[in-house]
Amino acid sequence: MLHQRHYTAEQANALLPEVRVTVRRLQNAKRVLQDEGFDSGFATLADVVGGAFPGLVRAQAAVAATLGFEHLEELDLLVRDLEAGLIDFPALRDGREVYLCWQADEQEVGHWHAAETGYPSRLPLDPWL
Fold first, then answer.
1. Which InterPro entries match (predicted)?
2. What is the rounded CA–CA span in Å between residue 52 and residue 46?
């Protein structure tokens, strides 16, 4: 098994308000970093000169992104496509690991797919759960 935690549809749906907020924060942070011209060499510069400050807006966005990804990782969720808000919740079906699939514009978790497939192969939960 790849994941230690597995969700039922009910558990995943109960977590959605928290996940929605986190995904929105991550999407906003990504936009800010792109708009502000995020410099991937910034970390290298900080190492070389002993510290650097990219400006308050970029620093806040970088912290928000780090904390958002950390939070989803603590929940054992997978970010499949941040722009689309596509998140997978590990689950079990007939003893094998699968993913409950949710997209930010959906009201609830209503689909799943096998671990070896992805979004294009997702199936409705009903009548599974």
1. DUF2203
2. 5
